[in-house]
Amino acid sequence: MKSPTNTKAALQNAVLQQDFETVGAAMVEQPHMQVRDMDVHYGDKHAIRNTSLDIAKNEVIAIIGPSGCGKSTFLRCLNRMNDTIDDCRVSGTVTLDGQNIYDKKMDVVELRARVGMVFQKPNPFPKSIYDNVAYGPRIHGLTSDRYELDEIVHTSLEKAGLLHEVVDRLDQPGISLSGGQQQRLCIARAIAVNPEVILMDEPCSALDPIATARIEELIDELRRNYAISIVTHSMQQAARVSQRTAYFHLGILIEVGDTDTIFTNPLHTLTEQYITGRFG
Amino acid sequence: MSNATTLEKVRGGLRRRYRAERRFRMAGMASVLVGLSFVVLLFGAIINAGTGAFTQTRFLLDIELNERAFAGHDVSPDALQNALARADYRGLVHQSLYSLFPEARSRHDKKALRKLVSSGAAFDLRAQVAADPSAIGSTIRFDALADDESDLFYKGKINRNLAEDSRRLSDRQIAWLDRLAEIGKVERRFNRNLFTRGDSREPERAGLLGALTGSFFALLVAFMLSFPIGIATAVYLEEFAPRNRLTDLIEVNINNLAAVPSIIFGLLGLAVLLNFFGLPRSSSLVGGIVLALMTLPTIIIAGRAALKAVPPSMRHAALAMGASPMQTVLHHTLPLAMPGVLTGAVIGMAQALGESAPLLMIGMVAFIVDVPQNFTDPATALPVQVYLWANQAERAFTELAAAATLVLLVFLIVMNLAAVLLRKSFERRW
Question: Do the Cβ atoms of A86 and B243 come within 8 Å?
Answer without folding.
Answer: yes
